[in-house]
Amino acid sequence: MSTGLIIALIVIVAVAVVALLVLRARGPRHGGGLKRRFGPEYERAVARHDGDTKAAERELAERVERHGGLRVRSLEPAEREGYEARWTAAQERFVDAPREAVAEADRLIAGLAAARGFPADGQYEDQLAALSVHHAHHVDGYRRVHTAARAGADGGTDTEKLREAFVEARALFEDLVGPSRHEAGQHRAGTAAGSGHRTPSLFHRRQTKES
Question: Per UniProt, which keywords does this protein have (predicted)?
């Protein structure tokens, strides 16, 4: 074996050792960072893995690696108004047809997420994973309304559970229909009053009208 080859092997081994040490050093901070980033979604992942935090963190890290670089597309004003009008219509329909309203809310969030650049074409699980990376604190609302919509189609969910799912889903809808953080920063900079866009609390608005 030549001297050059021996030196090359030594360098490769040294680099591998350094990389391993770096990964070990980052290990605890990696888990803490995932917990801060995902919030309640972190706890759900741990519960889904029967308390195995390592497995849960591997899953969440894979989500970040796969979807963390996703570029969210801006909505045109007319698009935003259209989605808001459809959500209001679904909510108003809830009184007379709760199952149909929840099914519409499920479809509406899926379509809105696709319009913003998240996975589309019926890829619910992939879309949910991507949304969890960028909207971790509200993504469970989509999970709940999707589950309720499927159960409701079979007549297996009572009205109160449907209502709870609809209400939970609204937070993610508001996140998606509103401007991105970059757009919101531009809006605040250009607005003298400094009031950014926020979708009204739709259930609250209806309750106000009925009171």
Answer: Membrane, Transmembrane, Transmembrane helix
Per domain, the residue ranges of the chain are: 28-67, 77-210
For helices 159-177 and 202-210, angle between their N-to-C axes, nearest 10 degrees = 120
What H or E segment, with its residue span, contains residue 10? helix 3-38
Query: 195 is written with which tokens?
Result: 């009031």
State residue 166 phi and psi, 5-degree precision. -60, -45
Nearest to 111 by CA among 139, 79, 63: 79
How confident is the model over 126-149, as pLDDT tens digits?
999 999 999 999 999 999 999 999
- pLDDT tens sequence across 94-128: 999 999 999 999 999 999 999 999 998 878 999 99
pLDDT one-digit tens code per residue, 175-211: 999 875 545 544 444 433 444 444 444 454 444 444 3
Phi, psi for residue 204 in degrees, rounded to 5: -65, -40
Spatial separation of the C-alpha atoms in residues 32 and 104, rounded to whole Å:
37
Give the integer Cα–Cα distance in Å for 189 and 183: 10
CA quadruple 160, 166, 167, 168: dihedral sign:
positive
- Longest Cα–Cα distance of the chain, Å, equals 88
pTM here is 0.70
